[in-house]
Design goal:
4-stranded antiparallel β-sheet; 4 helices; 6-stranded antiparallel β-sheet; alpha+beta; globular
């Protein structure tokens, strides 16, 4: 299966062929839609074919084969049959908001350089949980630093390394509770900044904006106590 959301996060529509129809939903030979995972919600949108169409309400990894992505279709609607050529159209506004929040959270992990114990991405806000005994003394200063990184309009690119290379560089992994997916032989790294002037580099399978200025201004919201050594830092898009 070709994962178009990895190849081009800005692709809004694409043709595909239905290769399977299961109890879970429809599986295409290539998909625009990101499946729920890594704290990022699934993409939604529509499928259309031969004058018919249906709404994609959710996207999940196949329960029997994690390499395949299943499109969950609206109940009661028409379903395409195996072999049908379809057009998939992304709910772009939702996806783009996730991209902005996701990239902002990577930058949040730069201004708060502590282990990440959890995270969640939304369309208007997101959060990271940190291995942090005490809340930051100056939240306003962190917000200024974060927005300064965003306004630098840093490039956001990807590179790939082998599983063995990641094992040899454990410092690349910021998440303490979830390890990046391995087993396929290679791991995707998302870089913010250039290789010569790198701001951040970490394993990630999600979607991101191409440049940080696209995020827009953000606000650091409530910092919550979630345990003895755990603080939740909430982040909001301002526009």
């Amino acid at each position: 299966m070709s994962l178009l959301y990895i190849e081009d996060a800005y692709l809004k529509a694409a043709s595909a062929t239905v290769v399977a129809v299961t109890e879970q939903g429809v599986i295409l030979d290539r998909t625009l839609f990101y499946p729920t995972g890594g704290g990022q919600p699934s993409d939604t949108g529509t499928l259309s074919w031969n004058g018919a169409s249906c709404t994609i309400t959710d996207t999940r990894k196949d329960k029997t084969d994690a390499e395949r992505v299943v499109l969950v279709l609206e109940e009661g609607g028409a379903w395409p049959e195996v072999g049908t050529e379809v057009t998939q159209t992304l709910d772009w506004e939702r996806r783009h908001a996730h991209m902005r929040v996701h990239t902002a959270l990577h930058l949040l992990s730069v201004v708060i350089p502590l282990g990440v114990t959890g995270g969640q991405i939304g369309a208007e806000k997101g959060r990271l949980d940190f291995d942090m005994p005490e809340a930051p003394a100056d939240k306003a200063a962190l917000e200024v630093e974060l927005n300064a990184l965003i306004t630098r309009d840093l490039s956001v690119t990807e590179t790939w390394i082998t599983d063995a290379e990641l094992d040899a560089n454990p410092g690349l992994v910021k998440t303490m509770s979830v390890q990046p997916p391995k087993g396929a032989g290679k791991v995707r790294l998302v870089r913010i900044g250039t290789e010569a002037e790198q701001i951040d580099l970490q394993p990630c399978g999600g979607t991101h904006v191409a440049r940080t200025a696209e995020i827009g201004r953000v606000r650091i919201g409530k910092i919550e106590n979630k345990g003895r050594n755990n603080r939740r830092v909430n982040l909001h898009l301002e526009g």
